[in-house]
Each structure stands twice: as C-alpha cells, then as structure tokens.
Protein: Phosphodiester glycosidase domain-containing protein
Organism: Chloroflexus islandicus
Amino acid sequence: MLRLLCALFAGLFVFTACAGASPPNSVPAGVPTLMPTRPATPSAPAGDWRSLAAGIELRRLDTPGVPVQVIRVDPAKVRFVVGYDPAAPRMLSAWAAQYGAVAAINGGFFDANGEPVALLISDQRVIGQSYVDQGGMFAIDDAGVPHLWSLADQPYDGTPFAQAIQGWPLLVRPGNKAAYTSDDGQRARRSAIALDRAGRVLLIVAPGATFSLAEWSQFLAGADLDIEIAVNLDGGSSTGLIAQSDHGGLRIDSFVPLPFALLVLPL
C-alpha cells in the first residue's frame, strides 16, 4: 500500500509540473518578445563607424540595455524609396529583399487597415493627411535631396516630393536640443530618422525596451552623432533596421508585418 501511495503521489507531482510548465523560449499568444533580432554579423565597436557599402556606414552606441544601432547614409550615393502595400504587409527584411535595399527602416504609425495615420508619399503618390502642429516630415525631392523639418514650425504646404514619411513626436531640434519632455515612463523599442549637420541621413533604432519617448529624445540630443534634427518613427513591434552588403550588415527585423517602409537602394 505504501508503495502504491508513493507511486500515485509521484505521478501526480509529474503531471502537475508538466501542466504548469511552458515550452522553452515560448511566448504567450499576443505578447511580443522584447528580445531583439541579433545582427547578422557583429556590429562595429562602440564609437566607430564601419563602412558597409557605398554611402552606408554602421555604428553601435552602447547603452545600459541593448545597444542602439545607427546607419549613416550619404544621400549622394544612394536613392530612397518608400515602399507601400497595405494589402500585403511584410516584415522589414522582406521589404529589403524585395527591393534589393542596402538599408531599410520601418516607417511611421499606421491603423488597423495598414493605412498611415499621417501623410506618406510613395513614388509621387500622396496617401493620407499631414500631421498639423505636431510631428515631423522626412521627404526626398526630385533631385534626391533629403529634407527633415518640424511640422509645428513649418506645416506641409502641398509641395510635391518624390518620397516622404511623417513621424511623431519631434525628438531633436537644431542646436542638439531635446524636443520632447513629457515622460510617461513607458519604455519600448524605438526608431527614429535624423539629419546630421553634414546633410547625411541617420537611421536609428533601440532594439530593446530601453527608453521612454522623453528618454529617447534626451538620449539622441546628447549622442555624439552631430544631429541637426530628428523625429520619432513607429516603435514597439514595428521597430526594425536592416543593413546588408558583401562586408556584413545588421538585421533587426520587425516583429510584425509592415504596410510601408523606408528603403535605401544603391544607385
């Protein structure tokens, strides 16, 4: 009898343990993991720029959490395209592969139907309505020159552009001043686009849930990136940054399919 009771108890213990256990590395449905996709190759040492392709450089900025990754783009050596397909959204890596992009970043915010909540221009096609008195706009003119400005300071007036995306909030103002100070303490993956004082485009991603928006603004204002102006892009599960070349690259994929993305193509 004692042996029977011990066997029954052992069986009950094993069943209870198995019923309460989760498979290794499992994530509950609907809850995205906060761990970033690892770079395809080791990123450059913190503080150093590493050349990947013509007009494309990569740098890592160490932070208390997961390092921030930055791609610096020389607009004279590449061309920019806003890919847009709300009917068939795809992961950022798939956008990059489709276009043969040397770099890519997620765009601004979108609704449940995949439509931008602000204005977007893809190959001269204008979609959505501009932010008013808030946010910023990154645009490429017909000559391939990038522009980035505060929509509160200069509302969009309908000027035609070849490509454009809008983001919110503005993060850095000229003079390396943090532009967003309302701190709600909500930390998440973050992405941003910026222009430096030499007119180069910076694609910037924090792959871990390291910063609130106010902390993100302060971090970029104080970063050694020579930023002239920067605006926030969609974060959280949309965050992604891709760079690929024969000399290595970076792969931080989005956690969800994206209806649009900013792609950097070779000339």
In short: Helices lie at 2-20, 92-99, 213-222. Residues 242 and 251 are 5 Å apart (CA to CA). The chain has three helices and 18 strands. The mean pLDDT is 86.
